[in-house]
Design the sequence.
């Protein structure tokens, strides 16, 4: 049993992408597609530092970083989910990912690597109609409003679709999700997933710091939704 949606399987996509996770049955918008669980491995920088270079390279390829800078290695097929600038799934501030549109059989489950706290710019395969060509380490700070809106609209359908992974979501998180749907609780922004060290800017500004994160006013996510 894996904590990625059971109506998926690992398939070879193409030489450029390698393997990916593909839906084998329809997965409606609002469905939780992946949940962080206790079997996922968590590595600190100190854990990784003494490892052989070949292991470091594998971890760099197959892990994402949380907002503490720890590297998370999914034990299931979640580590094979590919990038798209038009992702079918988006992560949330609640340790799960959600389908932000209907996913048809044979379609890949994808997410935007801009949400994963990558350490270096990631050059992507071109996508028709998309101007973005590179994923940057600070993309969460730039696009969080757009992603928040998509997540919030998907959460509205949470109780209207089947949720095979419901048992892996904590009771506390489920209570928050219900309150968000009922507009009793403000949804936490995906921006809270951002790991906040000083980093080089894409336009060669020397450094940017926590001020970018802290000085930007909080926006009410519900008021942005349509």
Sequence:
């Amino acid at each position: 049993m894996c904590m990625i949606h059971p109506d998926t399987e690992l398939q070879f996509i193409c030489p450029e992408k390698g393997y990916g996770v593909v839906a084998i049955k329809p997965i409606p918008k609002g469905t939780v597609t992946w949940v962080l669980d206790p079997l996922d491995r968590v590595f600190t920088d100190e854990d990784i530092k003494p490892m052989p270079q070949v292991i470091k390279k594998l971890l760099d390829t197959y892990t994402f970083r949380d907002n503490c800078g720890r590297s998370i290695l999914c034990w299931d097929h979640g580590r094979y989910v590919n990038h798209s600038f038009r992702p079918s799934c988006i992560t949330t501030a609640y340790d799960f990912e959600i389908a932000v549109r209907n996913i048809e059989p044979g379609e890949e489950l994808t997410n935007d690597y801009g949400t994963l706290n990558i350490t270096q710019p990631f050059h992507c395969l071109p996508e028709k109609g998309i101007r973005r060509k590179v994923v940057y380490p600070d993309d969460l700070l730039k696009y969080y409003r757009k992603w928040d809106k998509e997540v919030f609209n998907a959460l509205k359908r949470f109780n209207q679709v089947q949720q095979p992974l419901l048992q892996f979501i904590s009771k506390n998180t489920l209570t928050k999700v219900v309150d968000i749907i009922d507009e009793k609780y403000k949804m936490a922004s995906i921006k809270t997933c951002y790991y906040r060290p000083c980093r080089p800017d894409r336009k060669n500004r020397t450094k940017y710091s926590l001020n970018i994160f802290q000085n930007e006013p909080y926006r009410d996510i519900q008021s942005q939704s349509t």
Residues 199 and 205 are 10 Å apart (CA to CA). The longest strand covers residues 8-14. The two ends are 36 Å apart (CA to CA). The domain at 8-224 is CATH 2.170.270.10 (Beta-clip-like).
